[in-house]
Design a protein that fits this description.
The protein is mainly beta and 370 residues long. It is built from 3 helices and 19 strands.
């Protein structure tokens, strides 16, 4: 059995790679993976109790993948989900800087993908990220993604020849719960133990609008609609003043002891990921402004679990970011030096090269001879 993996390569144009490109840039080992055309037949009865006939329905290809997260592949998932991405090469051995953030762009980056299924691989064209989710509690940090795509082809695998080494990214370390730290409302909430964190983003791609008369399959690239980003953070009830003030903010819309007339609690959220064994690689996810509400209940004499649910807003900027001692403040500004508003900003330090379109070197003259 070959490794069950998903390979990704940014496309030159939607659904297309340049001639000669047959391999992805990176592979991710999959915990779960499925890609299907969604081409159910359309049947008809015409007054009979039995189906009298059927014709092929629309092709609406979609995929679902689950995996353990590491920072060497993270840039690909961030670029696939967000509409903005920039790269700065590191200097003098320092890691590269990958930035990804949300704006008003509706045109997402499309990828070619290679998904293996033991005896064959599907080569996916025009892969677009519908949703992305990260979760961590007391073990590995896991990720999952939902995809839509344009088309696929089937390629049998010779297991004796298949190079499984290409599926392994050297130095990739799966993230663990102790690699993740959280700051709510610009505070680490000393004395408070956060027990889980989840991030879920949805692009609400309009696949139906890509299929029209004259073709069963998608005819153009799907456009992203409203982006929804939600987070959930769990902890246990604490008597710390910072914790109680946060609870009041989530429950009453302000730090007070009675419900406010019309206020909604807003906080910045910062998530830091630092790999314990590799201090050169790290990532910050920053949500400048998010609504917050809180859930908790009492049960017997059990310790009370508290869940903070947040919805990210696109009305904040990096001015809300609190830099730590010795930390360089990530910037997100336009060409005129104005702060850009965003619902999420990701700042990744990694030796992962820039994610680019295909570049094909020209053949030598003698290679061009028949």
């Amino acid at each position: 059995m070959v490794l069950r993996v998903l390979g990704l390569k940014e496309e030159d144009t939607y659904g297309n790679l340049k001639t000669g490109v047959t391999e992805p840039d990176i592979y991710t080992r999959l915990s779960d993976g499925s890609f299907k055309l969604g081409d159910e037949a359309i049947t008809y009865n015409d007054g009979s109790r039995m189906v009298q006939g059927a014709r092929a329905g629309a092709i609406k290809p979609s995929g679902s993948t689950s995996f353990k997260l590491d920072l060497k592949r993270m840039a690909y998932y961030l670029k696939a989900f967000f509409d903005q991405y920039s790269f700065t090469a590191g200097n003098s051995g320092s890691p590269n800087i990958h930035k990804a953030w949300g704006s008003e762009g509706q045109d997402l980056t499309s990828f070619h993908a290679w998904a293996t299924f033991d005896y064959f691989q599907k080569i996916i064209e025009g892969l677009l990220c519908e949703s992305l989710k990260f979760e961590v509690s007391d073990e590995y940090m896991t990720g999952s993604a939902e995809w839509i795509y344009k088309n696929e082809s089937f390629d049998e695998i010779d297991q004796s020849d298949y190079n499984i080494e290409k599926a392994i990214t050297e130095g990739a370390i799966p993230l663990m719960f102790y690699d993740v730290n959280i700051e709510l409302n610009n505070s680490a909430l000393n004395g408070v133990v956060f027990t889980s964190f989840s991030f879920e983003g949805k692009n609400n791609l309009n696949q139906d609008a890509t299929i029209g008369l004259g073709s069963r399959a998608p005819q153009r690239k799907a456009r992203a609609q409203a982006r929804e980003i939600t987070m959930s953070i769990a902890s246990y009830m604490s008597g710390e003043s910072d914790f109680l003030n946060l609870l009041k903010l989530g429950e009453y819309g302000a730090v007070q002891t009675t419900p406010s007339g019309c206020s909604i609690g807003n906080v910045p959220l910062r998530v830091d990921i630092n790999v314990c064994e590799d201090t050169a690689e790290s990532m910050v996810m920053f949500f400048p402004k998010a609504t917050i509400n809180v859930e908790y209940s009492a049960s017997e004499s059990d310790e009370m679990e508290v869940t903070f649910n947040l919805t990210s807003l696109g009305t904040g900027d990096m001015s809300a970011f609190t830099a730590h001692s010795g930390e360089t403040l990530p910037t997100l500004q336009d060409s005129d030096g104005n702060n850009i508003k965003t619902d999420c900003f990701c700042y990744l330090l990694s030796n992962t090269p820039e994610i680019t379109k295909n570049v094909i070197e020209e053949d030598d003259d003698e290679d061009d001879e028949p």
